[in-house]
Specification:
By secondary structure, the chain is of the alpha/beta class. Helices cover 26% and strands 27% of the residues. The protein is built from 11 helices and 18 strands. Strands 3, 5, 6, 9, 10, 17 and 18 form a 7-stranded mixed beta sheet that branches. Strands 13-12-11-14-15-16 form a 6-stranded parallel beta sheet, sandwiched between helices. A 3-stranded antiparallel beta sheet has the order 2-1-4, with no helix packed on it. The structure holds zinc ion (2 copies).
Length: 343
């Protein structure tokens, strides 16, 4: 089968390769991939600043149909419409595995990074990671389950009450999903972006987000202060991975506010205003990926039409059109791009 393979670390080195069709193990299922989303981490991997076990087939946000199940699998059958968690291997013994926090297991191996992923015709998943699609969730939406699970995970890190004012910094796919999940809590949500994010800010409004602010044109400080009697925002989600956004977020928060870091920075060490954290008694929390407990809620949010993940999909390409997909992501034309396999 044809697969999009990261052949070696470093910039680029991503090629369509003819590989053996994978065989299903006894506790695994074989999935015919329908759609597979390009994640920010795939872009980082392509550009060489995210480490994967090369060579590996990239792709970890996917939907598909089960075509074969292993001998120990009774929960699924060929024809089932599914998506899968990215977890392919965990130790099962560490304190994080004991509590289902697989995203924190040091031995975890994920699809599309350490194990062959979904930018191919078929992908193998372990049965424990697989979820059947609810009736109202189509294959395009289902390919958004993983990023939505990440958004759900981030939102559960905060305590959000009805009427809270929440700022989401960065209107990328994760930011727009976080904003939609926060809306379900009855909060007032402000999404921020730059002039280059025009399309994304328009999408935020289309999705019913209360305010979409271009911080190069509007005074965000004024917007937040006017909505909060001058106190500042209750919660900030940083979904941009930008140093300037972090410091802006610390500025916009009220005293005792909650800051959730979701975006990944190009460099791991960044200058932040620690004084703000101390003097305002800000709670700062990191959110990494997603865990099993985020998946059924993510599917339910789409099934009940509380989150419109499909609306973020602006482009579809086949896996051999990577260069074009990369181009529309980098130049800001796209919000979410899905790839489909080729024969
Ligand atoms: Zn992802
Ligand atoms: Zn573990």
């Amino acid at each position: 089968m044809k697969a999009l393979v990261k052949k070696e670390l470093g910039f680029g080195n991503l090629e369509i390769v003819d590989v053996e069709e994978p065989e299903v193990g006894k506790d695994q299922v074989k999935i015919l991939v329908k759609y597979s989303g390009i994640c920010g981490t795939d872009i980082h991997t392509y550009e060489g600043h995210y480490k994967v076990k090369a060579p590996v087939i990239l792709g970890h946000e996917f939907s598909g149909e089960i075509v074969e199940v292993g001998e120990n699998v009774t929960e699924f059958k060929p024809g089932d419409r599914v998506t899968s968690e990215t977890t392919f291997y965990i130790c099962g013994e560490c304190i994080y595995c004991q509590t289902g926090d697989y995203n924190l297991c040091s031995s975890r191996k994920g699809l599309g990074t350490q194990q062959n992923g979904s930018f191919a015709k078929y992908v193998i998943a372990r049965k424990e990671s697989v979820h059947k699609l609810p009736e109202q969730v189509d294959y395009v939406s289902a390919a958004m389950t993983e990023p939505l699970a990440c958004a759900h995970h981030a939102v559960t890190k905060a305590t959000i009450k009805e009427g809270d004012v929440v700022v989401v910094l960065g209107p990328g796919p994760i930011g727009l999903l976080v904003a939609q999940v926060v809306k379900t809590y009855g909060a007032t949500v402000i999404v921020t972006g730059l002039s280059t994010d025009k399309l994304r800010l328009e999408k935020a409004k289309e999705l019913g987000i209360d305010y979409a602010v271009n911080i190069q044109q509007e005074d965000i400080n004024h917007v937040v202060k006017s909505l909060t009697d001058g106190y500042g925002a209750d919660v900030v989600f940083e979904c941009a991975g930008a140093v300037s956004a972090v410091n802006m977020g610390l500025d916009l928060l009220k005293k005792k506010g909650q800051f959730i870091q979701v975006g990944i920075f190009a460099k791991s060490e960044i200058p932040i205003n620690s004084e703000k954290i101390i003097q305002k008694e800000i709670t700062m929390i990191g959110s990494r990926s997603q865990k099993p407990a985020d998946w059924e809620p993510a599917l339910a949010l789409m099934n009940e039409k509380k989150v419109n993940a499909k609306a973020l999909v602006t482009h579809q390409f086949t896996i051999d059109q990577w260069d074009e997909a990369y181009r529309v992501i980098k130049n800001g034309e796209a919000i979410k791009v899905l790839l489909t396999p080729i024969d």
